[in-house]
Amino acid sequence: MVEMDSFTLVRHIRALAEHAYVPIIMLSSRGLSSDNDLAADAGCDVFMVKPVRFLQLRKELFRLLSKKVEAPRAREIITSEIRPIVPHGHPKPRLLLAEDNPINQKVALRILERMGCKANAVGNGREAIVALADIPYDIVLMDIQMPEMDGYEATRLIRESESRTGRHIPIIAMTAHATKEDRDRCLTVGMDDYLAKPIQVGLLAKMLQRYVTGIKSPDSATDSPSSSQSPTSAHTNETIFNRDLLLNNLEGDLDAFHSILDLFQSDTIRGLGRVRHALGARDFKALRESAHSIKGASGNVGAETICLLASALERAARMEDFDLCQNQFADLQTAFKEFTREVLLLRDGNSAQM
């Protein structure tokens, strides 16, 4: 197409919150496999080569329209019961979590504790390398985007060290980026497995169980790293605050619930300030990183609308579309104000019901 190619157009559409999950079919006169990959990375649901056969098109339309379109913000909701990943009486596996967001750390450590693990958290790849030198961890959960040293470089250095010792510790990547290139890069640098954020706790439990005990579930996700992209929650409607998600993760601990909410609100205020400063400086890299941080934290506390809009802002910053970034930021600020009101109402009037 003139002025803008189809792949760029799809990325623009996906950057709009109201159209982020509308099914998209791309039609092309070329049958190149590289075009198929580009279409998938841009956000297309189906790639078809022209001339398109009527029956084939009807089949794809029926498939897309008959399934419920669900946003990835609901992927992190878990079931009310999390069982230990090792049998009773066995030693608790020791895990190292490399994650720079303090809110994500708190929630993840609580979930890992419920799975029967001993877990510690560090804030970047450099700290992960130091921790591994001191303690013989069984598994590393490695975030990709971290300050000082990212997950890729940390993994490379860990594998370099292991080449001299003969040891191999399983490293599971955790990243919000879900393209085929990201998955391939994770495996190329030496990571053993891959989970896309927000993390499905059920898939995480099965993956940890395989590496700790060698027990392989019949619906294993290892053979298909991207399978963590499939939503499983019944909570698919966009909500300002899904309090059940956070309460469930914290086993109903109200003190921890309110503490994490306070931390999230103060951290988001600072994050919005960084976004405002990045917009003023037209610093798209800083803008993308700030939006990414807000997205990660909001997904863990049940701030689903904020998570959706922060994700849209991150995509707009990646495209360096200044006007779109400004619009997304305005929507994000409005959503945070609504979230704050919801939390105040909850604390003032509904605490007794919790």
Summarize the structure.
The protein is an alpha/beta fold.
Q: Would you write up a description of this structure?
A:
- With 354 residues, the chain is α/β, with parallel strands linked by helices.
- The protein folds into 3 domains: 69 residues, 3-Layer(aba) Sandwich (Rossmann fold); 152 residues, Rossmann fold; 111 residues, Four Helix Bundle (Hemerythrin (Met), subunit A) (Up-down Bundle), CATH 1.20.120.
- Helix content is 54%, strand content 9%.
- Helix 4 links the parallel strand 3 and strand 4.
- 37% of the residues are buried.
Mean pLDDT: 81
Radius of gyration: 21 Å
H/E order of the elements?
A: HEHEHEHEHEHEHEHHHHHH
Query: How many DSSP E strands?
Result: 7
Count of alpha and pi helical runs: 13
Domains, number: 3
Keywords:
9% strand; 3 domains; Rossmann fold; five-stranded parallel sheet; Four Helix Bundle (Hemerythrin (Met), subunit A); alpha/beta; two-stranded parallel sheet; 354 residues
Helices and strands in order:
Elements: H1 6-15, E1 25-28, H2 33-42, E2 46-49, H3 54-66, E3 94-98, H4 102-114, E4 118-122, H5 125-134, E5 139-143, H6 151-165, E6 171-175, H7 180-188, E7 193-196, H8 201-213, H9 243-249, H10 254-281, H11 284-301, H12 304-318, H13 322-350
